[in-house]
Amino acid sequence: MFKIAVAGTGYVGLVAGVCFAEIGHQVTCVDIDENKVNLMKSGISPIYETGLEELMQKNYAAGRLDYTTDYREAYRDADAIFIGVGTPEQPDGSANLSYIATVVRQIAETIEKDCLVVVKSTVPVGTNDKVEQFIQDFLVNDVKVEVASNPEFLAQGSAVKDTLEAARIIIGTESKWAEELLMKIYEPFNLPIVSVNRRSAEMIKYASNDFLALKISYMNDIANLCELVGADIQDVAQGMSFDERIGSKFLNAGIGYGGSCFPKDTKALEYLAKQHGYALRTIKAAIDVNDDQKTMLYKKASKRLITFNGLKVAVLGLTFKPGTDDLREAPSLENVPLLLEQGADIYAYDPVGADNFAKVYPEGKNGRGTITYVDNVEAALDNANVCFIFTEWGEIKAVAPETYKKCMRTPLVFDGRNIYAIEAMKEAGVEYHSIGREAVQ
Ligand code: NAD
User: Fold this and answer.
1) Helices 281-293 and 198-229 sit at what angle, rounded to 10 degrees?
2) Which of 19, 29, 115, 261 is catalytic?
């Protein structure tokens, strides 16, 4: 059992902290947000993740997990401190490392015993070297500190499962001491561990995420071509998926990737390459395709309708993907303002994301249009002129094609996630436009 502190209780930090407690370590999670800490202490998760709250309550009750804003208390005598604070994108595409720098300085000024600092946040290659130097520069007590890279690969919506059953754990270290300590901490998970040097570990994270983003953009690019030449992207993807070299995952065409990782991690790697005088053309292409794809549905709908002014527009799904309440870089955030600008009256439904969306677009008048949040699909569709599907939530996929015909004033659907079979929409008499497939007129 090790004494572990975790800095940052977002998707990465909180899930890591809870899972470390679950395998028997003594964990203190630190956050600067007092409201979050109070919520967590009362057993409530500040983020929506399946199974997380149960594990929080169980491990808190067992005395293995605690939360605090007092970083000194948590870092002082920790064996290892995991950093999971944000590294958001800056306007030039580079990663903002200021949150990391703050934590690192706090660590340097507080630790009183030998300690391994483990960077879980996604950081540009070479950052861990700088973190180690920074700690040495600010270190107050005479203790040994080393820095290890341990990038996180969880996907929001399945974060707990992805951590407890991770495909691999990547550790990047520069000494036997750090490698062995990190291996021991992870031993109870009983998962494959890949041990490399720090810079390779940092690169594995970006190379993995950006490869997935590239795969999505590639399929979207092919989908757009499918529409022009009369092929069906879903049939194409299915045919491709039998080839083990390609695999069957991440072949769904749609309205582009969003979330807190793919958009920023593609831009950060492109930026890093530029800094080294290298043009990373594949990733640049992935970014360009995605930028266009996010408003593909809106562009299609604008060709079909004279205006959205005064139309009742049903919006199904707001979050960047199902299973999360996260809206960061969600396609809805690109499309809704365009619709509002045009004077649309939007009725939006999302099983968990509406509250967060209402923080950006409050209910009522927004510019020329209005937005109303409803708590079921039928209420959004009721008497609507047009419907947009932005997120493939189970609740939305379960809506029968006839429901559009029955509820809407005109059954006109723009589906950014290809959730319906073309034949089913034809049979139901719904005008249906999706991505990379024949339009049902
Ligand atoms: P997040 O924004 O959800 O959470 C960050 C948390 O850190 C916030 O709660 C914030 O209050 C806290 N914080 C800020 N400064 C602090 C400080 N000085 N001390 C303690 N807490 C502090 O971030 P996230 O989505 O969990 O991402 C964190 C990192 O992990 C990023 O680098 C991200 O790229 C990477 N990552 C994210 C995911 C994901 O799916 N979200 C997956 C893999 C990797």
Assistant:
1) 50
2) 261
